[in-house]
Write a structure and sequence with these properties.
The chain has 9 helices and 17 strands. With about 325 residues, the protein is of the alpha/beta class. Strands 13-12-11-14-15-17-16 form a 7-stranded mixed beta sheet. Strands 2-3-1-4 form a 4-stranded antiparallel beta sheet. Strand 5 and strand 6 form a beta hairpin.
């Protein structure tokens, strides 16, 4: 079977393996291989691998000691892993139950199996889940050295954005002041704080804010994190001119919050603006909206235009890293 591998020189192998393991990206069902001085590490999602790592497709050797759900079912089911939970999306109840039973019988380190029971909905972007196995919808997810507790039925969280969050966190400097306008359980805030930043995270979802506080303590950064349960537009004046960095990860409607982002921005501030647009002009609408909100008070420089992932047919989830410098 051909699967994606990360190829690195052997001297970088262990460091890379640890990084991929922390992001829960290693495909445990296949052997790590060595060939011609390079290490090949099998990965579950090549799109989630950092851009500075090389991904190649090659034949894989399955681990004989591990039984997979596919071994039991006779077909390869589609699922996601999040901590010790497996997430499936099956309309057929019998098929969903069959997959859940196979997951539990396999050697996957899993305690919970959940089936998506609705689309993402509402202001807090949560969905309904059918509990196929396990006690509840709570999980603990590990990502690039951080640990996040969360309840999938109460908060929004996407493990698929791990690499993007890691990219942004890599730009954070010690003693920065960072503001996440839609913080959730803290996947941006926590790694920022671990790099020495003073952080404020705001969310309208009270459950998410409680988890953000717990996760700040869990990761040893509670002294650098302020969690606020509110609409960011209501509290933006309290943080006027405060931030060196602002995260706006609400891609369907971030443009509605740009006035507040400009209020929060300090004299020299980087804004990470997430958007979903048609592939014909994925960056233009966001850039125009930012310039309209920030100019002439700020000089606007787009430092990075990045496609994060494909969102839907002909639609892209993108990020603009934009520097605002007060004129």
């Amino acid at each position: 079977m051909e699967v994606p591998f990360v190829r690195v020189p052997r001297e970088r192998g262990e460091t890379t393996r640890r990084t991929l393991a922390e992001a829960d990206l290693i495909a445990d069902g296949y052997e790590i291989e060595v060939e011609s001085g390079d290490l090949y590490i099998p990965v579950v999602d090549p799109n989630a691998v950092a851009d500075d790592l090389e991904v190649v497709i090659r034949s894989a050797v399955e681990r004989e000691t591990q039984t997979t759900p596919a071994d039991i079912l006779g077909f390869d089911p589609s699922y996601e892993r999040l901590g010790r939970a497996v997430l499936v999306d099956e309309d057929d109840e019998e098929r969903a139950a069959e997959i859940a039973a196979a997951v539990l019988e396999s050697d996957l380190p899993v305690e919970t199996v959940l089936n998506k029971a609705s689309k993402i909905k509402g202001e807090t972007r949560v969905r309904d889940w059918e509990l196929l196995a396990g006690e509840n919808t709570e999980v603990v997810h590990r990502e690039y050295g951080c640990e996040f507790g969360l309840d999938l039925a109460a908060v929004y969280f996407s493990p698929r954005l791990a690499t993007e969050r890691h990219r942004v966190a890599g730009q954070v400097r010690e003693d920065e002041r960072a503001f996440d306008m839609f913080a959730g359980v803290g996947p941006f805030v926590i790694p920022f704080a671990k790099r020495g930043a003073t952080c404020v995270g705001v969310d309208v979802n009270g459950d998410a804010i409680e988890y953000l506080r717990e996760n700040a303590s869990r990761n040893g950064v509670a002294d650098r994190v302020t969690a606020v349960h509110d609409d960011v537009r209501a509290i933006a004046p309290e943080y006027e001119g405060w931030a060196d960095r602002v995260v706006m990860n609400l891609p369907h409607s971030a443009d509605e919050f740009l006035e507040s982002a400009v209020t929060i921005a300090g004299d020299d501030c980087v804004v990470h603006y997430y958007d979903i647009q048609h592939e014909d002009d994925p960056f233009g609408p966001g850039e125009r909206a930012i310039r309209e909100a920030a100019e002439p008070e700020y000089a606007v420089t787009v430092e990075t235009r990045r496609t994060v992932r494909s969102y839907a047919p002909h639609e892209l989830n993108v990020c603009l890293d934009v520097r605002l410098e007060r004129t």
